[in-house]
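One chain shown below:
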Amino acid sequence: AKKIVNHFKELEEDDVKSCSMGAGGEDLVMSPAARRAFPVSIECKATVGMPGPSAFKQAMANAPEGMIPILSWKPKGVGADHCGPAFRTWEDLFKLIDYYKKKDIE
């Protein structure tokens, strides 16, 4: 949550909140302002390797309409987070590409 708020300067600390592991629904609760800045729904996992298909299905099931589902995981023993899109359709992929083009991200 903090990484998202720090990246998008228009957001405030309470625009993105982390939920406890095991809570139902999205793992990061985002305000309308956060969704406009970063139109994704994030499912987080702590795992040894790459999460299996059920984790991607969970990310897709928890994503609100119009949001791009993202699966984030931090393999045990590895310092960096890993993220992967859980696209329902090709249109979700195209939407993500268009979003980044508009943001002019390097």
